[in-house]
């Protein structure tokens, strides 16, 4: 924008009025004419004297204003107020001198002299008496200072440190602006949006009331009904005529705006879901990438053809080492190429083009004219972005205008109307932002010339202000017109603001507003008293300018489809530059319609050029919205602003009550959870009836606590008025519970299931008292090491007979009770409740979609493994086009295939068997855990507390007691007691598991400061992914060499394939396994299967997705799913599916933070404190934010993606393709066989 307007003459300096053309003088006799001539000469001399004084006064007050705007201090504030006051005193006395010619100047022969007097007719705010004027100046200064110095807390700091021991130092520029552009977290954006308004607008409201009173008082003294009418004087003698013309223009643009709104709403809904933005609702203002939603800056969401080259060249600017100075130099070069002026030496010496670190300043970009024909400046806190690159050209456009009219009398040094100044800056931006121009600047490496690239560009231009801005530009001043005119009283100012934003823009606030808020005051131009309709006018006129200049530059021909208006770049066209300069040199010396006509040939604002520019986009949007059945327009889905303070007070009371409830829950829950975890630990580490009883009693206590808190939560009032984060917290901690009898029954069932699973044994011959085998380690060792098919089948069947058949009736009861509890909490069934922990109604479909992307890799791995087993067992057991028997895959469930590595490895000469090496080097369990801890501390993460070493069960007890050996990490909810339970033996697999479990402990410790309801992973998959990525990193040959388990790391092709195959056997192979176990549960719980068919349906899913079958015929007595720990003990397994996807996303992000160069599979984050900082910042959040927010903080994306995993395993995938096809094997099994898979694969 142009520099700030000063009261009095500076209004004149930037203003023009609409005068009738060829105004005739009244008939008069010669004597009268002679008298007028004499007075005319005297008037001319007076104005010449005034001009000299004006230049000096203007220079003085501009210097004082600049000093304050560029360094906000009390001293500079006093100097500015003093200079402004002196200036206004001078102007008021000068104005009185000109009033002597009232009734005379209208008859002057000199049209320019007449225009000068007409422009000086309006005194402006200086018409107030000194006391009122000083008060008005002080009010405006104070409001701008509040706005400019507003700071808010970082959202992530607040969430990481729930008790608010954070520094709140984020400023609007550049901090909040950058965050709103880059963040995809609805919670973070809502926090920034509302916090900024709390710190700016709300503090300005009471000041603004007095400002309105004084402004209207000044308007009345100038002959206007109110300040809104006075602001419109530069555009038309009758303000209503101008208002009607604006409404007409807005109506002409409405069809395109409605199409854009519908398109943007759908794209946002695809990201944030219907709960955040409905199919017919207005758009939440915080989601649009801009503090005021005046531009919709979400290219990653809105771009229709993302595969095309991005026209946001910000990354290229940074890559090419752009600086603020270079951006300004390139802007100057653009104008010079048009035969326009270079910047003056004073410009380069005095401008502020980067934000100083040593002071507060008003960062809002502005161009300044110091009224001496040499000193022109720009003040801008420039960021290295494409947006700021355009802004630099815009501000320099103001400076070009200021230099072009600097030869004119002082009264004519301004835009033809206030919109002209903005349009001149923006018209250059229309050329600079074209792909053609960016390509010329080497900022866009590839220039794509097709319809898809055109639509991407036009949509970007429309959303980044040009179209989207128009209703906002109108709303800001429409609201002020209504305020100044008294149409709306102060008690309804804020709600009127939101009525306008809803009805005209289709925008709603992210949180409910009230009359305690003052959201208009959070837009700079409102506290700064800058009329805003100028920007609306500029957005219309700039396209009129652009069209005319493009014709002169021969860049646009309405008859030539190859030269559309939107591709025009006037760079280096002296014809266009000369025409533009000629118009600029007129300044305000002519009525604005004449000035407009001098360039465009028309004397009024017209939407034809802007509609023509965007016509291809409008047609595309109509078709796209029609194709998707998108509703055009919007309907209210809530009350967005409470009209009374009492309503806000009720909301505040409700919020305070809910926060008090949550604080009480946090205090009591810690003690309850600690008690329950101790009882559960004692039972899991010593399976006795006594401990079972104590564990059950503890579980009943937590059920009673949950019931108590749920009943108390029902007493909370006005919960619909609660903040989004408070609602989320309540949903996490309270829920309906089962009746007491059901709770007791459920607790007994769970206890019995745990005991049956933990004490399960398989005995070969009870009559001869042969030793029975427990699951860990005997049966697991057998499944891992044996290649005897009959023995494997015996163990497999025996475990399911010993455990599954006993669990079956209990599991049926368990499922019934879990469904009953879920339905009491408004879920359709327990599976629905489990899925909603991932905060998505479409979670099942999303997981199946992810698996479809991973399936080709799994099927290749399956084919490779099948061929190996075929060579081992022959065609009687293994069919080369069929599924695999489930008992041969390396553990009791065929979950992890990693024990089969030696058997499966492609290049047996490369030794990856590390168990023997560990034993040779004297490894023991304590050393293995110390190694794991050292991995974490090398990254700057936390050490284990002493209690960990004293209280954990790291090995299977030798005192004969029965324990649940399944490795688990425990958090005792007191912030200091963290343990692992694991029957560790000296194997590399157990070393990996140690790193995994310590990952859980690290997560517990990082979020221990959070309230009880947030002490968990962002989602269940996060917890598993953190541990697994540590296992993945410590398994790399580089790391194994660092710790002395490998001697050399060469990474030959053979080494690489062997390593990737080994890693795939503990990750890729598990994907369908984990998916199927929960697919089965979800479908069973929702009644999709009859209970008697549960086991049959389970094996159908296993064969369909895993390509495995039961090696022993299953009977009506069997129920195999609960024979795995997680199903028997109420753990969902989709966490491990999501874990495997997430761990590779995390790995990629942490390797980038660590500065890793090379393939992802060679990355070891050991020792990287940068990776550790990034990891800790996410772990410390716990579940205080939605998991999508945590994922974005870690990786920069909000969705689970298979791309990093597939990239990691790409060499293995290509190897398997070639090998499978070389052997003539098929890919798939049963109905999934791909017989023509190798059809186009060259065989070497």
TrEMBL record:
Pfam families: Peptidase_M2. Binds 2 Zn(2+) ions per subunit. Its EC number is 3.4.-.-. Keywords: Carboxypeptidase, Disulfide bond, Glycoprotein, Hydrolase, Metal-binding, Metalloprotease, Protease, Signal, Zinc. Chloride binds at residues 235, 534. GO terms for cellular component: plasma membrane. Zn(2+) 2 binds at residues 394, 398, 422. Belongs to the peptidase M2 family. This is Angiotensin-converting enzyme. It comes from Meganyctiphanes norvegica (Northern krill).
């Amino acid at each position: 924008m142009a520099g700030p307007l000063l009261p009095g003459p500076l209004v004149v300096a930037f203003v023009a009025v609409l005068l009738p053309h060829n105004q005739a003088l009244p008939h008069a006799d010669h004597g009268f004419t002679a008298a007028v001539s004499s007075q005319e000469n005297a008037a001319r001399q007076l104005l010449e004297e005034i001009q000299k004084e004006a230049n000096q006064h203007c220079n003085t007050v501009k210097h004082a204003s600049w000093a304050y705007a560029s360094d906000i201090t009390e001293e500079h504030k006093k100097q500015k107020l003093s200079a402004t006051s002196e200036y206004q005193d001078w102007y008021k006395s000068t104005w009185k001198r000109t009033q002597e010619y009232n009734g005379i100047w209208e008859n002057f022969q000199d049209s320019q002299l007449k225009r000068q007097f007409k422009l000086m007719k309006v005194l402006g705010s200086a018409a107030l008496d000194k006391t009122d004027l000083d008060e008005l100046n002080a009010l405006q200064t104070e409001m701008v200072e509040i706005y400019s110095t507003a700071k808010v807390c970082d959202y992530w700091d607040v969430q990481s440190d729930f008790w608010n021991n954070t520094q709140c130092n984020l400023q609007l520029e550049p901090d909040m602006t950058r965050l709103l552009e880059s963040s995809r977290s609805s919670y973070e954006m809502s926090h920034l949006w509302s916090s900024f308004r709390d710190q700016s607008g709300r503090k300005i409201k009471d000041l603004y009331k007095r400002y309105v009173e004084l402004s209207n008082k000044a308007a009345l003294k100038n002959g206007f009904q109110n300040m809104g009418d006075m602001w419109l004087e530069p555009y038309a003698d009758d303000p209503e005529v101008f208002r009607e013309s604006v409404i007409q223009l807005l109506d002409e643009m409405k069809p395109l705006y409605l199409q854009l709104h519908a398109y943007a709403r759908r794209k946002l809904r695809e990201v944030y879901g219907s709960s955040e933005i409905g199919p017919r609702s207005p758009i939440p203002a915080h989601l649009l990438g801009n503090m005021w939603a005046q531009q919709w800056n979400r290219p990653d969401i809105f771009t229709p053809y993302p595969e095309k080259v991005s026209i946001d060249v910000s990354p290229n600017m940074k890559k090419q080492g752009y600086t603020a100075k270079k951006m300004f130099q390139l802007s100057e070069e653009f104008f010079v190429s048009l035969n326009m002026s270079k910047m003056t030496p004073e410009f380069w010496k005095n401008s502020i083009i980067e934000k100083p670190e040593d002071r507060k300043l008003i960062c809002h970009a502005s161009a300044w004219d110091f009224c001496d024909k040499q000193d022109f400046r720009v003040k801008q806190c420039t960021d290295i972005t494409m947006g700021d690159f355009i802004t630099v050209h815009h501000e320099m456009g103001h400076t070009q205008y200021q230099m072009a009219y600097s030869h004119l009398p002082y009264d004519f040094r301004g835009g033809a109307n206030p919109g002209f100044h903005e349009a001149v800056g923006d018209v250059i931006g229309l050329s600079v932002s074209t792909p053609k121009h960016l390509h010329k600047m080497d900022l866009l490496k590839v220039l794509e010339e097709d319809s898809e690239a055109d639509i991407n560009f036009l949509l970007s231009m429309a959303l980044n202000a040009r179209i989207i801005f128009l209703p906002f530009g109108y709303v800001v001043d429409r609201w002020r017109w209504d305020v100044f005119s008294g149409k709306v009283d102060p008690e309804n100012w804020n709600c009127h603001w939101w009525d306008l934003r809803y009805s005209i823009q289709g925008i709603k606030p992210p949180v409910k507003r009230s009359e305690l808020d003052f959201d208009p005051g959070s837009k700079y131009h409102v506290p700064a008293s800058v009329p805003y309709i100028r920007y609306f006018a500029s957005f219309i006129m700039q396209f009129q300018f652009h069209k005319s200049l493009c014709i002169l530059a021969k860049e646009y021909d309405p008859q030539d489809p190859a030269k559309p208006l939107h591709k025009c770049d006037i760079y280096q066209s002296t014809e266009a530059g000369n025409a533009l300069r000629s118009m600029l040199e007129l300044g305000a010396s002519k009525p604005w319609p004449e000035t407009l006509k001098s360039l465009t040939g028309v004397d009024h604002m017209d939407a034809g050029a802007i509609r023509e520019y965007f016509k291809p986009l409008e047609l595309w949007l109509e078709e796209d919205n029609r194709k998707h059945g998108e509703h055009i327009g919007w309907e209210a889905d809530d009350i967005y602003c409470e009209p009374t303070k009492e309503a806000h007070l009720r909301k505040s009371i409700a919020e305070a009550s809910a926060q008090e409830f949550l604080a009480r829950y946090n205090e009591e829950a810690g003690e309850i959870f600690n008690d329950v975890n101790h009882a559960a630990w004692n039972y899991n580490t010593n399976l006795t009836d006594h401990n079972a009883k104590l564990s059950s009693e503890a579980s009943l206590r937590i059920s009673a606590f949950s019931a108590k808190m749920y009943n108390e939560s029902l007493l909370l009032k006005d919960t619909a008025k609660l903040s989004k984060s408070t609602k989320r917290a309540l949903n996490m901690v309270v829920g309906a519970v089962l009746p007491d009898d059901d709770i007791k029954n459920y607790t007994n069932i769970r206890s019995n299931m745990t005991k049956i699973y933990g004490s399960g044994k398989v005995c070969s011959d009870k009559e001869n008292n042969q030793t029975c085998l427990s699951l860990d380690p005997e049966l697991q060792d057998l499944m891992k090491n044996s290649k005897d098919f009959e023995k494997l089948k015996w163990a497999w069947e025996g475990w399911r007979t010993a455990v599954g058949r006993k669990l079956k009736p209990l599991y049926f009861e368990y499922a019934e009770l879990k469904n009953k509890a879920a339905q009491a909490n408004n879920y359709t069934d327990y599976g629905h409740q489990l899925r909603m922990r991932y905060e998505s109604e479409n979670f099942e479909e999303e997981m199946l979609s992810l698996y479809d992307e991973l399936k080709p890799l799994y099927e290749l791995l399956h084919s490779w493994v099948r061929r190996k087993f075929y060579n081992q067992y022959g065609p009687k057991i293994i069919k080369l086009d069929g599924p695999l028997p489930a008992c041969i895959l390396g553990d009791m469930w065929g979950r992890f295939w990693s024990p089969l590595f030696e058997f499966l490895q492609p290049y047996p000469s490369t030794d990856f068997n590390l168990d023997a090496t560990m034993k040779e080097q004297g490894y023991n369990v304590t050393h293995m855990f110390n190694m794991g801890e050292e991995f974490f501390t090398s990254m700057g993460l936390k050490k284990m507390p002493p209690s960990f070493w004293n209280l954990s069960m790291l090995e299977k007890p030798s005192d004969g007691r029965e324990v649940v050996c399944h490795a688990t990490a425990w958090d005792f909810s007191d912030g200091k007691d963290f343990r692992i339970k694991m029957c560790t033996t000296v194997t590399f697999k157990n070393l990996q598991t140690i790193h995994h479990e310590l990952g859980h402990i690290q997560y517990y410790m990082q979020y221990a400061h959070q309230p009880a309801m947030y002490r968990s992973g962002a989602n269940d998959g996060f917890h598993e992914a953190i541990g697994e990525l540590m296992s993945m990193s410590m398994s790399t040959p580089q790391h194994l060499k660092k710790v002395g388990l490998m001697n050399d790391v060469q990474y030959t092709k053979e080494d690489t394939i062997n390593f990737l195959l080994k890693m795939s056997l503990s990750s890729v192979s598990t994907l369908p396994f984990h998916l199927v176990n929960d697919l089965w549960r979800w479908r069973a719980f929702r009644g999709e299967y009859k209970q008697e068919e549960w086991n049959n349906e389970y094996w159908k899913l296993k064969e369909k997705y895993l390509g495995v079958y039961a090696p022993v015929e299953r009977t009506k007595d069997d129920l195999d799913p609960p024979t795995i720990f997680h199903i028997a003990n109420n753990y969902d397994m989709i966490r491990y599916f999501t874990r495997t996807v997430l761990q590779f996303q995390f790995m990629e992000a942490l390797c980038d933070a660590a500065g890793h160069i090379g393939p992802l599979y060679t990355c070891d984050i050991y020792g990287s404190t940068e990776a550790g900082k990034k990891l800790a910042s996410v772990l410390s959040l716990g579940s205080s934010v939605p998991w999508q927010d945590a994922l974005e903080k870690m990786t920069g994306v909000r969705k689970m993606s298979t791309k990093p995993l597939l990239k990691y395993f790409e060499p293995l995938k290509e190897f398997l393709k070639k090998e499978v096809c070389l052997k003539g094997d098929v890919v798939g099994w049963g109905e999934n066989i791909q017989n023509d898979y190798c059809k186009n694969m060259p065989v070497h």
